[in-house]
Amino acid sequence: MTRSISPNDLMIRRLQSIHPLSNEEVRALGELPLEVASLESGHDIVRMGDRPKQCCVVIEGCTCIYKLTSEGGRQIMAIHVPGDIPDIQSLHLGLMDFGLAAISACTVGYIPHEKIQQMCEAHPRLGVALWRETLIDAAIYRDWMLNIGQREAFGRVAHLVCELMVRLKAVGLTEGDSFKFPVTQANLADAFGISSVHMSRVYGALAASGLLKVTRSRIQVLDWDELLEAGDFDPTYLHLEKSAPA
Amino acid sequence: MTRSISPNDLMIRRLQSIHPLSNEEVRALGELPLEVASLESGHDIVRMGDRPKQCCVVIEGCTCIYKLTSEGGRQIMAIHVPGDIPDIQSLHLGLMDFGLAAISACTVGYIPHEKIQQMCEAHPRLGVALWRETLIDAAIYRDWMLNIGQREAFGRVAHLVCELMVRLKAVGLTEGDSFKFPVTQANLADAFGISSVHMSRVYGALAASGLLKVTRSRIQVLDWDELLEAGDFDPTYLHLEKSAPA
DNA sequence: CGGACATTTGAACACTCTCAAGATTTGTGG
DNA sequence: CCACAAATCTTGAGAGTGTTCAAATGTCCG
Asked: Start and end of every HTH crp-type domain (chains A, B) (predicted)?
């Protein structure tokens, strides 16, 4: 079912989903050299304080951006799926103000900053596409802040499931009404700003309401309309070229 | 004390604080045409769903970015001070996914997108500076998410006061250990994801602890070291060229 | 089949909320 | 310059959502 995809393809799909690209631009993206690596869950890809000289592309699995408080709390502020470039901001913000880690077993690719810079000079519209990508990252942060600050835990979870469904569909990684999602509840709890105990209870409530069916490696949406309602979800902030869900 | 500042000057100061600029670049920024307007608190500058053809620069007072839930909750996800360009993202993200409003009486300036585009073509390094500015906006979102998701209300407020002190100092708008801040507690509550009743209690607690002295239009820091501690504050995420506080 | 890790469940507690009333401050008109 | 209206802030009390601690159950991998 999952035919072998060239490592660059998912990144191209992702960029195409937010910005029209010419054949030549697609070719330029396809020619970016990608050093592929397999990581186990929990692996720190880039640490706060680092000054990376390359960008990371997610090829398989999920990564996250996180920060810690001095009290030991961890907030996950972004979850990445295949095609995403989690640390694209390092191109112009040398010093990392957050950590980037794998939250599932995953495959990533590394591209030297230098190669990206050269590509942007040769194809200025790709530079704009990347800028736009960073702006959409920010739009997602805004939506997460609304989610965390104003909704109860039940709604927060519903909202994220809607978001993931739409983002994964845009790169062709949904399978009907479900998608692969091997992220632990403890990690999700850190993304919602709740305890892992409560996370378990909320998942239970979502299942009891007949909205979702969840296993350790997959989420299945049983009632998309009710889920949209529960998550108060509007995909505008994802700024996709065309965004029709499930 | 506050000698008359040209409307463009604060924006230039802000950009200089995050990116070195040549004299020629400063001149180009100074020549941007700015249509100045006075707004009263509560005025909506740009609405969600709009497609603005200009950017807004804050000259005096405070503006905020916000989103609403269908339940009527409002989350403020950014507060802007003079020199900031709140909707700079509209340059490459045509559709507004958030609202921009004045949260104090304020003076703003409008610059047509077209003029900014022309400036970026003539001075590519200014384009990079603006990209960098949007990346720092995102870095601030990340920090707010950590604040809202992982800290108790007391720490959230302490953290924001630290941030404002540093940002205002960078554009020369602090007065010793205090700064002008005519924002209501109800607005702040929406920024912290708490009720206005609790906001009042937290301000009380901060004052009782001897960290702050607050009036309706001004915040005075009484104990900077304790405030840093209480807010668990590290200014790295602001990405200022040199960031020495109070 | 054992062991590490992840999830579930119960119970007491805490931070924050809502509702409601009272106290202050600010702005405006006389 | 005073008086009143509107907005903002403060304070009290009861209710909730989510927390912590602790132990039991379940799942995956070597």
From this structure: 175-223
Q: Which of A142, A236, A239 sits opposite B141 (nearest CB)?
A: A142
Q: Which residue has the tokens 């997108």?
A: B113
Domains of chain B: 7-145 (2.60.120.10), 151-238 (1.10.10.10)
Q: Give me the mean pLDDT over the B67-85 stretch.
A: 97
Q: Assess whether B150 (CB) lies less than 7 A from strand C.
A: no
Q: CB A75 to CB B131 under 8 A?
A: no
Using DSSP's 3-state secondary structure scheme, residue B246 falls into coil
Q: Does A237 touch chain B (CB under 8 A)?
A: yes
Quickly tell me which residue has 């408080």 as its tokens: A69
B159-to-A148, A231, B209 alpha-carbon distances in Å:
18, 29, 15
Using a 10 angstrom Cβ sphere, with 0-12 exposed, 13-18 middle and 19 or more buried, the burial of residue A227 is buried
Using alpha carbons, select from B241, B156, B162 the residue that is nearest to residue B201.
Answer: B156
- Secondary structure of residue B151 in the 3-state scheme: coil
Residue type, B19: H
Mind listing the pLDDT tens digit for each residue in A155-207?
999 999 999 999 999 999 999 999 999 999 999 999 999 999 999 999 999 99
Q: What angle do CA A37, A42, A44 make, to 5 degrees?
A: 65
Q: Which of B15, B70, B77, B135 to probe by mutation at the A interface, max A CB count within 10 Å? A: B135
The answer to whether B26 contacts chain A (CB < 8 Å) is no
Among the partner residues B135, B138, B148, nearest to A148 by beta-carbon distance: B148
The answer, yes or no, to whether residue A41 has pLDDT greater than 50, is: yes
